[in-house]
Amino acid sequence: MFRYTVSSISSHSALRDRRFPPIQSKELPTLECTVSILTDYEIAEGYLDWEVGKHGLIIEFTDPEYNIRRSATYLPEVAGHEGWTHAETIDSLMRKAGYQGTITESLRKKIKVTRYQSTLCTMHYGEYVAYLKKNRGAAPSISGVPAVNGFKPGH
């Protein structure tokens, strides 16, 4: 069984991350949190040795121009969601890793690919509130202010 808690990191992201508008109390009933449980890590036989939608990827390679190690990862759902081929996914990962040079077939073949799978676990906000009430006897609080019926007073 998994234990769900709101960490200070997720609270910071939800309320103070300048890249996104803060979550408002009226949005709470529609929120859900999905966690990917990553499993079955395997070294792939090459950059084509994985299935779109089934495997997540970790790539590792040496940037030939700067002679530095680069790496990046995508969860299993990314390539399928984007509609990418194997090569498009690998190329996107290389860019995500910070590589700005020309991507060639020769370079792709030098990449170490680790593939993995994941199981998604989702909890809706109402389930979270019910869990806290049952197990802790109280509804959640936001930034130390108790929520009333799941809503922060004054918001």
Task: Report what the structure shows.
The chain has 155 residues and is of the alpha+beta class. It has a domain at 39-125: Dna Ligase, domain 1. It is 28% helix and 28% strand. It has five helices and six strands, in the order αβββαααβαββ. It has a four-stranded antiparallel sheet. The chain starts with 7 loop residues before the first helix and ends in a 9-residue tail after the last strand. Mean pLDDT is 85; it is low at 1-9 and 148-155.
Taking all Cα atoms into account, the compactness measure Rg is 20 Å
Widest sheet: strand order? 1-4-2-3
Structural class: alpha+beta
CATH topology of the domain at 39-125: Dna Ligase, domain 1
CATH class category label of the domain at 39-125:
Alpha Beta
Low-confidence regions = 1-9, 148-155
- Main beta-sheet annotation: 4 strands, antiparallel
Beta-strand portion reads 25-35%
**Please, what is the average pLDDT?**
85
Number of strands: 6
CATH architecture of the domain at 39-125: 2-Layer Sandwich
The helicity comes to: 25-40%
Shape verdict: elongated
User: Would you identify the CATH H-level superfamily of the domain at 39-125?
Assistant: Hypothetical protein ph0010, domain 2
Task: Give helix and strand order, one letter per element, not per position.
Answer: HEEEHHHEHEE
For the termini, the CA-CA separation is: 34 Å
